[in-house]
């Protein structure tokens, strides 16, 4: 380089800074002015839209720089080039800070919030902790934010987690507003949230249902036989089941499942919900959906146990099953062992079908032929056809997948029987494969157990779905669900001995996890939430209503004496979610969830409980005392089946009671919001994006709402 030459400097000034006057005449001739095909403001607007698409759809940061996307962009907007990776990464950091400031401002006018938290291990073997915030808006709509989603490098102890949560709350000025925190049964998270630092701790209802079903019926493991004792002396049983809690937490931390799209045909109904049409909340976690079980990875599937299966294979075992007296179900451990071994055989057959491409194609063709017949028959009867789906395998971290496996397996019973009892030579298998298929055949007793399992587990399956919503109060529904399930388990039918015995097994574990293990504070909060929700109020007994009334009166006296209850008889400051909001805040304010009351009615009918009837009374237009507010609420709660609709109409008349509503009915009954975030994070850090940094993942998770 010539130290005395200024040619490069002049060229730089002219090309990069538009200082044409410094260029030599020869350099001026080389510069051709570029015509501006798109304005700066328009490009900025398009870049923002592109970055929002990247965040919301979990796209790679260089998505709009790919060759095919460039061609597409040139067609729809000639001259526009999408943001590159560096621009997206830089912009995400700015949007993240804006979003945090927005959340902080929005929550400044909220009096009561509730939290959920959980820990997750990513595909890159990094641990993350998620903290979500839940509250009721001025229109009594359940709203939630991801407060924090950060990599956790410290040792996993209760004190470390407690410090982290406390620090996050202090940053957002929420320390004094927390009413509760909902977690699963993991020992570290449980230890971090005990006490009153973050309000009352609630045990996740969905995890408790998971433990009830898995441990009662031995879905995946043989439970050590330890006798349950009375509630006054439950040391042994608590020790046994607390170990199960820890195991469940360890599994959930390793939950690397991705979000799968439903590939079923819209012209069909699902084979596991043909007679029970429930309206689902849009935000119900994908990891709880039965349809997502169609693409379960082998890593999550239950391992085959040849040692345990060997005595159950062959004609000898089938003969024993045929001769098994129904009276054997009187002994719980015997029935649990039968269920365990039967499910192992089901898994083994499904796995065998999957490994054999010839057999898999044959079964798929048989399903196609049967679906054609189903469509024809349904068309003749003017009904909607119910689709048969391929058999699936379950996985340990979600008991719902076991229900899906059983349901689909039963739907394919005729095909399963054909290929196992007398397999056709047309299949084209080898001799050893035919012999193995015959060994895996199922007796009439086997099918009767599977049918009983499906019938008994269906209310639990629907209960999990009901508790997994985020757009409506779930703590109040938790009380109704618990009541309905207990009623279902205590009802017996003389003509269904197998179902009765399965109910007894489930009832023992249900009583333990939902009565003995649940704290008094959680039971009290759940009852109050159910009382204050018109949707669930109508299903309460007179005893429940009386207890709720006494509890609220007592708490009101306490809060009044300490002057801690802030009562605002005017309309609460509206929290606008649509004006001047940064990326990720374009939310709908639909305050109703589809057919809330109808959903509970369907669930209660399934559990053999009577439906509630609506009650209407004249409104009162005078200032009421707190006790009068309670009386007025109890007389008008039946006039509306929608939570938000009722309290928007009665907030002015019941200002004191509405404060308790905002305190208790924002509490989530499950830690599903955190679990859902982990499923999304797993998809974000999929193999195609394995290089995504933990900071970029945090930004994307907080912004992706």
UniProtKB/TrEMBL annotation:
Biased segments, Acidic residues type: 242-272, 288-309
Intracellular or extracellular location(s): Nucleus
Official protein name in the record: HAT C-terminal dimerisation domain-containing protein
Pfam families reported for this sequence: Dimer_Tnp_hAT
Protein keywords: Metal-binding, Nucleus, Zinc, Zinc-finger
Basic and acidic residues bias locations: 273-283
InterPro entries: HATC_C_dom, RNaseH-like_sf, ZnF_BED_domain_contain
PANTHER family noted in UniProt: ZINC FINGER BED DOMAIN-CONTAINING PROTEIN 39 (PTHR46481:SF10), ZINC FINGER BED DOMAIN-CONTAINING PROTEIN 4 (PTHR46481)
Record GO terms (molecular function): protein dimerization activity; zinc ion binding
Span list, region Disordered: 228-327
